[in-house]
Amino acid sequence: MSRNILLLPGDGIGPEIVAEAERVLARVNDRFSLGLNFEQALVGGAALDACDTPLPEDTLAKARQADAILLGAVGGPKWDALPMAKRPEKGLLGLRSSLELFANLRPAILYPQLASASSLKPDVVSGLDILIVRELTGGIYFGQPRGVRHLENGERQGYNTYAYTESEIRRIGRVAFEAARQRNGKLCSVDKANVLEVTVLWREVMEDLTREYPDVALSHMYVDNAAMQLVRAPKQFDVIVTGNMFGDILSDEAAMLTGSIGMLPSASLNSQKQGMYEPCHGSAPDIAGQGIANPLATILSAAMMLRYSLGEEEAANAIEAAVSQVLDQGLRTADILSEGTRKVSTREMGEAVLAAL
Ligand SMILES: NC(=O)c1ccc[n+]([C@@H]2O[C@H](COP(=O)([O-])OP(=O)(O)OC[C@H]3O[C@@H](n4cnc5c(N)ncnc54)[C@H](O)[C@@H]3O)[C@@H](O)[C@H]2O)c1
Ligand SMILES: CC(C)[C@H](C(=O)O)[C@@H](O)C(=O)O
Ligand SMILES: [Mg+2]
């Protein structure tokens, strides 16, 4: 069986970290005879520079045909002044919406070796294993109308629309309830139902789903409290389900509980389980080109790809075990460095994972 993997390195540290994940994928491809074929395409700022669009037709066509996609990151100061429709981030959002990748899984797992790198005290985070299920193709990111308009008094007004249909809420809800059922039967839905009508509906639909999932205990929390609880007592959470923007923010927050945003992988899936896999972080312009970025979130995203889109559990487990092994060896990129550990570069970290494989 042959499977096509599309690599989209993107911008900033994207090419550096995707190169390491590609080498890891190539190694498990050989070791487990996975029949993976790799192809590359442009997205984001790299695509803007070459083709004047952040999502070229050719990239979208390749993405539609791929069995799975691995993306680095997009964006950077070079393109920040462009109008919204032309920005690198539109390339990423265009991929997500064109492929209907509505279900974004962001696991925040603390590797025990990184307990001292976490922003929280070891006893508060030890054993942390949370899954954030973020709706990815709706909400305020995509709602219409949007823009900047001129008011009669001469002032300009910027506006966006936060909208969800019942069916959009139901389908992400089902993904979250299924995940909760397979884990510990606990789901917390995060909203702002004390203020926003759209999330009153969100809450109603989530409640409704409990009839399909009587074995899952559903709770609700306002997003401001959830942000606080995540740093107060994160282990109260198991699966969190939330909308696009709240999920974006809460997942960056959760990343710091695991030591670094450089540790947080993600899967973005559609209803056919076709998926795009990417680290939760961005293009990190402040460290791009220095060879010091942490490639583990991308390598762990590759493991998620093997598990969710390709059904290669054994290869996925092997990558995760290799990551754990290099952490055991005390190797750390700068973002997770702590006393008594050894600082390594992006490439050295990739090499170490390869060696462990
Ligand atoms: N999925 C994506 O492609 C994605 C995600 C987030 C942000 N972005 C874009 O990236 C650009 C920069 O955004 P930002 O600075 O707000 O967020 P960022 O995630 O790029 O960086 C935030 C901080 O985390 C650090 N960091 C991120 N990844 C790291 C890694 N692998 N190893 C070590 N340190 C790491 C950075 O050095 C920086 O200090 C923007 O253009 C933004 O739109 C893209
Ligand atoms: C770059 C940006 C569009 C993106 C998002 O907000 O979804 C990023 O922050 C992420 O978390 O994947
Ligand atoms: Mg984000």
From TrEMBL:
SMART domains named among the record's database cross-references: Iso_dh
GO cellular component terms, semicolon-separated: cytosol
Annotated residues for binding of Mg(2+): D224, D248, D252
Gene3D superfamilies registered for this protein in UniProt: Isopropylmalate Dehydrogenase
EC id: 1.1.1.85
Top-level taxonomic group: Bacteria
Cross-referenced PROSITE patterns: IDH_IMDH (PS00470)
SUPFAM superfamilies: Isocitrate/Isopropylmalate dehydrogenase-like
Residues noted as binding NAD(+) in the record, renumbered to the chain: 76-89, 282-294
All residue ranges annotated as the Isopropylmalate dehydrogenase-like domain in the record: 4-353
Localization of this protein: Cytoplasm
Amino-acid biosynthesis keyword on record: yes
Catalyzed reactions per annotation: (2R,3S)-3-isopropylmalate + NAD(+) = 4-methyl-2-oxopentanoate + CO2 + NADH
Residues involved in substrate binding: R96, R106, R134, D224
An annotated Gene Ontology molecular function: 3-isopropylmalate dehydrogenase activity
Sequence similarity: Belongs to the isocitrate and isopropylmalate dehydrogenases family. LeuB type 1 subfamily.
Subunit (UniProt): Homodimer.
Function: Catalyzes the oxidation of 3-carboxy-2-hydroxy-4-methylpentanoate (3-isopropylmalate) to 3-carboxy-4-methyl-2-oxopentanoate. The product decarboxylates to 4-methyl-2 oxopentanoate.
Protein name (record): 3-isopropylmalate dehydrogenase
